[in-house]
Amino acid sequence: MNCGIEVNSKPGTTYPNSGLPNGPGTLTRPDSGQQVFGLGFTVSGWVSGGIGKIGGDSIADKDRVNPQNPNGTWTLDQESNRWTGEKGYKPTWSDITPNMLAINAKDSTFTYYGQPRTNAGTVPGLVRD
Predict the structure, then answer these.
(1) Alpha helix segments (H runs only) across the chain
(2) Which pLDDT tens digit goes with each residue over 11-58?
(3) Are 74 and 31 in contact (CB under 8 A)?
(4) Burial grade of 31 (CB within 10 A; 0-12, 13-18, 19 or more)
(5) Phi, psi torsion values for 45, nearest 5 degrees
(6) CA atoms within 13 A on the CB side of 35
(7) Cα distances (Å, whole numbers) of residue 47 to 9, 25, 95
(8) Using only C-alpha atoms, what is the Rg of the chain?
(9) Across-strand partners of 67?
């Protein structure tokens, strides 16, 4: 098998070696102390050849290079979209970058943390808009 992926949003678990919670819950914004509610999740997996780029084609190649494994042969991406009542549909966009706060993509394995949030605000590097 050349690749595999697992997503964990089980309450009571966390992103490895951190206090970042999986499942429904809150995070505290480091810049304002504001509580942000969302669904935390950890993505982990493996690929033969490693992750060389992080992010979608809408991001410039130079900004997608994985500093932990620049010669990897795979691209890691997470696409998002949303429907909001007042603004309507927002087209799909790539919402993962190599400089995320909680990402590890060395060798042939990877893990990262995400938390889609409510409209209360975002936590830079963690929470998706």
Answers:
(1) none
(2) 999 988 888 889 998 877 667 777 778 888 999 999 999 999 999 888
(3) no
(4) exposed
(5) 180, -170
(6) 4
(7) 21, 30, 20
(8) 15
(9) none
